[in-house]
Design a protein that fits this description.
With 291 residues, the protein is an alpha+beta fold. The protein has twelve helices and 13 strands.
């Protein structure tokens, strides 16, 4: 997942708190920016915007229009963390600070553009890097998330037989079903890649498992063609696998859910759990999971 440091405006134009409002307005016009971080002897005091200057006498100083303490974010924060902070505080820009030093400025427009590149244009769902970020954040907060991986059965054959435009409509129909299910159960749906989808729920799977059948029943039918789905579920493993490394644990959950979805294709119920993968792996020669 991209970090704030990758998209922020580096070395933004700054202004002294004792500069006049007229001078600040000229700086904004000259550099074509709508805001200026305010620094005094290297110390960050806040940020002013063109809106702050409206109606203020030009001979007054920047200090007079400066509002509240600066709202800052780390350059290592993810884009979703930046979006959440902007939405929570109702602001359109964040100062990017590390160890008290101003490194850059992040605006809502820049953030929206960067996030837009991480959503699948066909289905409107967030992509795999946002799934990983959400999963790592859940684990980092000490939650025990549930991950559901979904494969479409014989999607390649459908594409060959009925064409890619039909395949696109199938993917959109799957996305609609998954999105509706995720909203009902306070989760998030993702397009992982190709014909693979994922759902993330920030809680234990025990409460979710009884409802998963609703993703499969009634069968998904698109323009008279029945589309099969197989689901793999991981989660609930922290007693054994959660030593404080969210990235490694996320890798483990993704791997198990993906393998479980493959295992589910051979089952009448079309659902398999991570424990099923481990049992199949233990039985298979060389420890490889059985299909």
């Amino acid at each position: 997942m991209a970090r704030v440091r990758e998209i922020m405006t580096k070395a933004p134009v700054t202004v002294n708190p004792w500069a006049s409002v007229r001078e600040a307005a000229r700086l904004m016009a000259r550099h074509r920016v709508g805001s200026l971080p305010v620094l005094l002897d290297g110390a960050l005091l806040g940020v002013i915007t063109s809106r702050d200057l409206r109606g203020v006498h030009p001979n007054r100083v920047v200090q007079d229009v400066l509002k509240g303490p600066p709202l800052c974010i780390s350059p290592e924060a993810s884009l979703l963390e930046a979006r959440a902070l902007m939405e929570e505080k109702g602001v359109e820009r964040l100062l990017v600070v590390k160890e008290g030093r101003l490194l850059g400025l992040l605006t809502k427009r820049t953030l929206a553009f960067a996030l837009g590149q991480r959503f699948d244009p066909l289905t409107g769902l967030p992509r795999a890097d946002l799934l990983r970020d959400g999963l790592e954040r859940c684990l980092g907060r000490g939650l025990d998330p549930t991950l559901v991986f979904a494969d479409l059965d014989d999607f390649g054959k459908l594409n060959k037989r009925l064409g890619h435009t039909f395949g696109d409509r199938v993917l959109q129909a799957v996305a609609e079903r998954f999105t509706a299910f995720a909203r009902r159960h306070r989760g998030e749906a993702y397009r992982y890649g190709g014909d693979e989808f994922a759902l993330l729920f920030p809680r234990l799977r025990q409460g979710l498992l009884p409802h998963l059948q609703a993703l499969l029943d009634p069968p998904l039918v698109v323009e008279g063609v029945r589309v099969g789905l197989s689901l793999g579920v991981s989660g609930g493993r922290r007693r054994r696998r959660r030593p404080g490394n969210p990235r490694a644990t996320a890798d483990d959950l993704l791997r198990l859910a993906s393998l479980a979805s493959t295992l589910a294709k051979g089952r009448p119920e079309r659902i398999a759990l991570s424990e099923d993968v481990e049992r199949a792996s233990a039985r298979a020669p060389g420890g490889a999971p059985a299909p």
